[in-house]
Each structure stands twice: as structure tokens, then as C-alpha cells.
Amino acid sequence: MKNLLPDLKHYNLVLASASPRRQELLKEMGFDFEIRLKGVEENYPPDLKGAEIAEYLAKLKSDAFQNELAENEILITGDTIVSLDNQALGKPKDETEAKEMLQSLSGRSHEVISSVCLRTSEKCVVFHDSTTVFFKNLSEKEIEFYISNFKPFDKAGAYGIQEWIGMIGVEKIDGSYFTVMGFPVHRFYAEIKKLIS
Least enclosed by CB within 10 Å: which of 6, 29, 62, 94? Predict the structure, then answer.
């Protein structure tokens, strides 16, 4: 069977993300890559909204590697935000904040926006995708069970759709499931093909 992946034999993919979801999805697509991490303060200008925040942060993470890429390297960075009533929910600091976030999402719809920045030594491309997620009314016991067992402190909006809370709480989504996981794989596939063509 012919391999349909973009022809990357002249390139090394570098994923600058500690997210196990992004690593897993990239592997499942069939890509080989190395992981290279740097700590970046995830601050953004207060006037940015929604997709602007996600794209700004993905590029900010990429900028940290700007002068370090070899000619044949493609760097991948990403960011995901949960947007409720035009307010961005980041990663919760503690159990109290996680509980507040999940209570605010309960019984409502919200938007999950995942952005990716692809950078070579010569080019930089930033894009995003968004999906609307509809949660049922979550009981206090369900929220507390999820937080104490799954500790969602590394996740925007305090939840992972692929975890227990997504299984019992998400009634429907409008858009890509993988975007909610944090990596819009269909957009990534299209954009990396364009980048190397």
C-alpha cells in the first residue's frame, strides 16, 4: 500500500509539546518525530479573544526555538483554549478552580479552539480549528469524582474529552473530536503538505 503521508524524508519533525495527547495523535498518524521542550510563560495581551489567544500562544512557544532550527527541521507547537461566553478558560491551578470551571461548563455549550504553529528555518505558519462541545448537567458528585480521580490540572477548561467526564458528560460536539483533544489533525495534515510542497 502506498504511504499517503507527506514526503518528509528530507525533514526531521520536532514536537515542542509535553502533551501526551499531541504525542499520541502524531504517532497514530504515522509520523516519526523527536520531542524538544522549553519552558515558556504562557502570557498573552488582555485584548485578545478566542482563536487569537490560541494562535498567539502557539507562536509564542515556537518563537523560543526561532534561531535554533536546522535547515531540515520542522518544529510543531500548539495550544488549546476553552472559550465560554468569550472568556478563555486556561488550566486550573487547583481543585477549587477545576471545580468552578466544570460547574460553569455544566449544562451548556462552549468552544474549544486548538492552534498549531509550524516553523522551519525560513517559514512560520499558524492556524487553528474550533469545535463546539455540549455538556449535560453535571452533578457535584460527578465533578468531584472526576477531579479527584483524573486530576485534570494540565488541561484547558479542566477536562479531557477522552477521559471519564467526556464519556459521561459530553452529549454532542459540532466539529472535530481531535481538536477538542488538543490537536486538529485534519488541519495539520493539510498544512504540513502545503509547507513542504
Answer: 94
Note if 129 is an active site residue: no
Which of 32, 47, 63, 79 is flagged as catalytic? 79
- Single-letter residue type at 149: N
> Residue 144, SS3?
helix
C-alpha cell at 180: 477538542
Q: Rounded to an integer, what distance in angstroms lies between the CA atom of residue 80 and that of residue 161? A: 13
The SS3 assignment for 40 reads coil
CA-angle at 137, arms to 135 and 139, nearest 5° = 125
Domain boundaries, the chain: 12-196
Task: Give the pLDDT means over successive 10-residue stretches in the chain (197 positions).
Answer: 60 92 92 91 91 96 92 95 93 96 98 97 95 98 97 94 97 97 95 89
Q: Are residues 15 and 26 in contact, defined by beta-carbon separation less than 8 angstroms?
A: yes
